User: Fold these one by one.
Assistant:
Number 1:
Amino acid sequence: MHRNTYTVTIKNKLHVLWRGLRLIQQKIPSLLPATVAGALLKSFSPFITIYLTARIIDELFGAKSVPRLTLLVSLAVSLNLIVFLLQKGMERIRDTGNYRLLYYGLIEMDQLILNTDYENVEKPDFHLKKQKIEEAFQVKYSGIWRLPDLADLLISNLGTVIFSIGLAFPLFTTFSSGNRSFFNSPWLAVLFLGFILLSATYSVVANTRFSKAVFRKMGDVPSVNRAFSFYGKMMQDYHRGKDIRIYQQQKLIDKAYKDFQRKSLQTFGIEMAKMQARFLGTNAAISSLISGFVYLFVGMKALVGLISIGSVVQYVGAISQFTSGFSELIKSSTDSWQNLDYVKLYFDFLDTPNPKYKGTLPVEKRSDNDYEIEFKNVSFRYPGSELYALKNLSLKMKIGQHLAVVGRNGSGKTTFIKLLCRLYDPQEGEILLNGINIKKYDYQEYLNLFSVVFQDFQLFAFSAGQNVAADIAYDRKRAIDCLNEAGVGSRIRKMPRGLDTPLYKIDADGVDISGGEAQKIAIARALYKNAPFIVLDEPTAALDPVAEFEIYSKFQEIVGNKTAIYISHRLSSCRFCDNILVFDKGEMIQSGSHDELIQDEKGQYYALWQAQAQYYKENNEQAFSS
Ligand code: ADP
């Protein structure tokens, strides 16, 4: 059983490795070949010097032939130069490749966030996964980005080990038949190999344990770093600057920031540094022991006349390359193995499933806007929530109808809109467009039916015109018309670059806009889309009374023959709608026209209406009495 899971883990990891390498090869084809070539050159280059120096020394102590010496020296110089230049060339290709990989990897994750089902975006887990990947990269430089570097280390160290064994091989295999000294015994070679194997086993075990501990610790890092980046962002965000100054919150923030810094250092930095020091210390001790042993062994062999002085240089050089290459090889193999866990996190994130069923039915384009929506016994709970946000909702939206939805906070009004736009699918019941379940339609085409101004609408730091058109190239006249209609045209015209002025101060020439102006631009965006359904969720919350009045008085004109859904706390603005739905705790408890609903003195609509009427009355009386 245990063995089985182990095999599965190995298989999974190899699959992740294969997928990672294939992805890099597809996206940046020059990166891996340059890495492999660079690694081979790197491992090969020291041996040119070691081998040729040995030959030069032998020549100096032996025949002393000048032409031969000249040949050897020029060979050493030119080979070194060629290898060096080739290596630098590969390094350059690798550096640009790695840079492209960095951005490719990050952009790929952002693309997923932009395109995945909305349901995923609202899950905190989803964002935590991404954060863990980014933090592993920042703190440990681990993940898909590290694959080329680890490939480089693995190949170059493996190369070093192979080349050094090749160069040191004769030391263990040539024995002089007449010499019976201990240094001529094959047993010494066996002992030597045994020693290396033992230290290798130790290194593998220690290194694996170390990297596993780091991977576990990484689990703690996101929470600490999240707090870090939260405070970091808070300091950058100039919108918060006002509150920070008025309430003199600098000290409070500074302390919290430092506390997190300390915690982060304790949970990750100090402990890790201790572990690393222990691990590296033992590794270094073992390496020096092996080196000492080698010097002794080679020196003794030379002393008893078994090998030449040149060969001493060759063997000592080769074996010291071997010991460092070998311990690095073990370190890079275990690091690579552990890094695959981080690569797996990356692919797991990219593989986040889309829960939504994707239909293919085209939505018929109709100039008469003859689209009818029906909710049939629709119930919905947010993922992970026990409570129904909407319960057993049934209603029909007729073409051109103006529908208002009212109700207290949290009664399910926005959820109703989210289901209508299929940002979520209901667990029970169904929503029909012209008699067909909306799941069956092509989602993009279905979305084309809706213009929505959400309560928490968002504009972007693009130009004003691009914000309205939600596109790079757009119809400027139409954008201006929509902005005029939403009552913000003159403000945009006064901006330094008119429609081309970037919103918000991210750009140097960006312009900050007020909440009310932003809301009007959001309304203009909804108008520009010109969809058959227009949904306004508290569309006037940020508007001043004059602007609000303007929007309301133009409401019929703005909405035209579209089907409109209108959510507002301001009941006086809903009274002109054909039908008013009253929501309470996820249920529709009343529906009808204003005149009908106001008759029911026990109903919630009456109570809500009275509460506001009362407020206005009191205000009026106060205004008159003062
Ligand atoms: P309203 O728009 O009427 O103020 P909502 O539709 O936003 O109400 O919310 C209805 C209920 O669903 C509330 O109890 C709210 O807390 C809950 N809710 C809203 N959004 C989410 C969400 N993403 N996850 C879990 N619960 C949510």
Note: The two ends are 85 Å apart (CA to CA).
Number 2:
Amino acid sequence: MNPLELEQRADRLLLTLRKKPGVYFKISVLERALKLDKLGVVEALAEIKKWGYKIRTRPDAVAFIKAPDSLTPTEIGYRLKTGTIGRTIVSYRSVKSTNDLAAELAQSSAGEGTVVTAEEQTKGRGRLGRKWHSPPGTGIYASIVLKPGFKPENAPGLSVMTAVALADAVKKFCGGDVRIKWPNDVLINGKKTAGILTELTADKDKIDYVIIGVGINVNQGTGNFHEELKNIATSLRRVNRRKVNRVKLFKTFLVNFENEYKNYTRHQLKKAHGRIRKYSSLIGHEIKIQLGRRLIEGKVVDIDATGRLILECEGKKVPVIAGEVTVVKE
Ligand code: BTN
């Protein structure tokens, strides 16, 4: 039997078994339901086990017990409640950067909502040319292809919008204090847990595609963080003191992302504005911000409905579109 045929059989068997987790299905019943002989069912079962699924067997029956926490199209796509985001999922074990792969796909055939994931990145990239440490099997490293109809000047808010979707998802899975450090770092108890790298390809008045890259520290233990990151970064596992299911967290994020994106295309940040303010780690704090070559200092008094940081400097209100923030006074 060719490998593709085996994979398809295993997929069909898996879908049947997981409809009733823990319930034993007679092999003879599965043979009839899937139009296979006994050997066909046994081979498909062996394949499913190889993928990491926990299956319990009796001499004449089998039961689905547990799915692996792997970022595969099968797991992410299983009962995923989205319309476009994640309808196509491409997953790799190891890549240089999911953003690069997503961009390659976007240039060829990939449509809006295509998701690229990897278990490991060997050259994960952060903002401002930084590295994004991406050890295997512990974090979520993913990129989403967008092909929006709006003009390039409306793209900057996409990062802030993504941060809100991410913060809402992280909050659901973690007991700590979840905040957004403007524009798009997600913090738990003051330490960075997730980051967003938005890359845009456009000409003067038309967006070609946008890649939204998301990195989430999920199950990294203390030992997984480089020395220089230990005090400024954390993971959901470190905060909760137990592992978090990456697949469930990622699916929650995709559903949130789709809702936020729909709202964004119609109303920009208007619907997210309340949560942008509520999650802000900066409002009320004195900060320094690097704006190109200028360093300005002031108190953050608000984030406006277009996602700009409003700084009070020497009695004047200064709106800031983008920049690298350092907190001066907590
Ligand atoms: C940052 O906070 O500096 C942004 C980090 C973004 C990391 C993600 S991981 C998936 C995607 N691929 C990359 O190379 N980077 C982004």
Note: Residues 97-99, 121, 124-127, 130, 132, 141-143, 185, 195-197, 213-215 surround biotin (CB under 6 Å).
